[in-house]
Amino acid sequence: MNSLQKFSPEFNRLSPQENADLDKALISVQKFIESSAAISELNYATRDAHSKTYATVKAKLEISENFPDFIAKIFDQKDYKLLLRFSNANLVINKKGREIPVYGFSVKFKNFRQKEANFPLVNFPLFPTNSPSVFLKFFTSVNTFLVTKQDNFLVSALDLPHLLRNGFSLASDMFSADLAKRTFQFLKHSKDFFFSFKYSGIGCYRLGDFMMKLSVEPENISSKIGRGEPQKDSINWFLASHETSFNLMIEMCENLENQPINNLKKEWKKSPKFCLGKIKIPKAAFLNSDDPAVENLNFNPFENPEILQPVGKIQQLRKKVYEASIHTRNELNRKKMPK
């Protein structure tokens, strides 16, 4: 495929200022995780995003036939064992109020060349800014405000102007035609059933020498299932009573104008697209999400083999945040697990 765009480390390079902002953000991540059990009123430290698990299941990916050699030489087995985690995107686990309808569908390959490969996917895959510094300053402000609010509500009022200022900077950077279109469509479908959404990655990944985006597309699942019921209840009922399947799709980067790497406010257009295979979830294939070992599972894409590593500036920010979040959370939860 001579027409495909090749990977270059330049796609990942951060400026000195972006690295300085990242260092500050990582301190805020550590402090948030240390306070997360108290913030969400739980007895364990949560993730820094997608904290609420709806369900975790075993599944299998049956690989398609007749796709190009550059894909076949990477995914060279007939099938793969998977773990899937379904989640809500909020930082804080909300036990009472209404949840934001932003969801995660994370895919873990258990046996990819004797290693694991992880792909966290979401139902709203566009990012509000292409500026690492704008995102990092807002992200740091949110973490700092939530931690301070938990420690001392009155003192947290001093952090509010900083949060609002950085929130305004993020909001002013948000507009794009694709983002506006996707937001409008998203609001129209905000009450739809979890498994009726298409789930895609934020940013792209290497596929050997090339670059791809991954997505999961449902097969004939009604958006009206569980209408008016909590998503967690609907998801668990559906998985307990149905075998279900999804298509795992790959889009390839052919040119940077139609498939930009570092413009996450724009959806890819006119990209070569292939069905990698079919994800099959058996009926009632649950793992116990209350088991600390299951709760502590990570779906960190930066632990992938080099040929499947995330690509792009924002992805590099996420790499450091993942590492800080996972390390802090696992250290805290390990101390609380029964020996």
TrEMBL record:
SUPFAM superfamilies reported for this sequence: Heme-dependent catalase-like
GO molecular function annotations of the record: heme binding
InterPro entries, sorted: Catalase_sf
Superkingdom assignment: Bacteria
Name the UniProt record assigns to this protein: Catalase
Organism listed in the record: Kaistella treverensis
